[in-house]
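The methods section describes the discrete structure representation at length, but only in general terms. Each protein is reduced to its one-letter sequence and a matching series of backbone shape codes. I believe one specimen quoted in the main text would settle the matter. An entry of this sort, consisting of the sequence and the corresponding backbone structure tokens, reads as follows.
***
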Amino acid sequence: MLNDIERKRIILFVLTLTISSLGTSIVVSVFPYFILALKIPMKEYGLIGTIASTIIIFSRIPFSSIMPVVGYFKTFSIGYSFIMFSRLFYYFASLGIFSFIFFSIGVIFSRMMFPVYNTVRGTVIAKYFSSERRASVMGIISALQTLFSSIGPFIGSYMYQGLGMGFPAIFITSFLILLIGIIPLLYLSLNDETTSKKETSILDQFKMIPLIFKHRKLLYTLIVFQIDGFSWSLIFMYTSIYIAQTLKATPNDQAVINLVSNIIGILGFIFSGYLSDKMKKRVFFLILSELTGIIFLSLYVLAWNIFIIYIGAIFMGFMFSFWGPISTAYITEKSEEISKDIIPITMGVWGFLGSIARTPGPLIGGYLYDYSPRAPFITTIMLLIFVIILLIMIKD
């Protein structure tokens, strides 16, 4: 059971995450039209993503190693500042000020929040909640974030289509909402007592890395997860652009697709986490995630109208909810078999390897997209079939 101080920390942390989800998601429904307005070729857009992934490679493990030393929430503040700065760079790009350069910097800053966000969130939950409740709690938090990220795209869509407001107004609105999240985050950072109680150093964290690679099941799982990460990196930058170009989807269509996916995701996050904790069948749900992902991608490839994409969004929601909290719970549990102290650096290594795996994906996906918009989706489907075969070989 959590004491009063721990409960307050968790509540404020979740509040920060939900504000972040709302502020960040405002740009989601209009972002593909912003890219198209800038007339950026997909291979150049993919190159920006690859450069961002390269930078992330060298930040994953350092962020993980400093968490137990300086504090989880202070580290999280760094990632939060990245996403805020990204909105400012998008704002300047939308004004026509060095558009390509500022847009590129904005993408890099936006992507750099993920190594901090995911690592800190997984580590904080592992610190405060036992293995028996971990996936359930992760599911509830993910559901709350998803709920708030369902609202943002409609705000952005209404500003763009309903009110006729331009990209600058949308990006600055996103920034101002994110600014509100600084209030609970500032309290958490100033009262950050989640650092290690025993003497530790960044060097001590790095010394534990070899233990991760000696744990065969953990190492195998990490390898499979990296193949999965590469598979999805081929298409994740292009899904919304794809339907905007091939099906002439509007920003409101994008918001509805996001809503459909998120409604399913909210329910899926809660129930899949709960069932996974009860059944102790983490890998089973990971396989389900890949199967629903294949259906989602197949519908995108075969779609001849926007209604098919709405159906695809249902499977997208299942795909996210079956993977997100459960994969994190599974990695922390395998880490715990070595030592609970190794969880932060394991999360960092996982992210580090994932960044390496995903680095070439956006560029390769961009070239495939310029060759044929369906090509990256078909390639990802084939890779996911291979991942399912590898997951079947893991015993729960």
Summary: The chain has 18 helices and no strands. Residues 131-162 form the longest helix (32 residues). The CA atoms of residues 270 and 394 lie 24 Å apart.
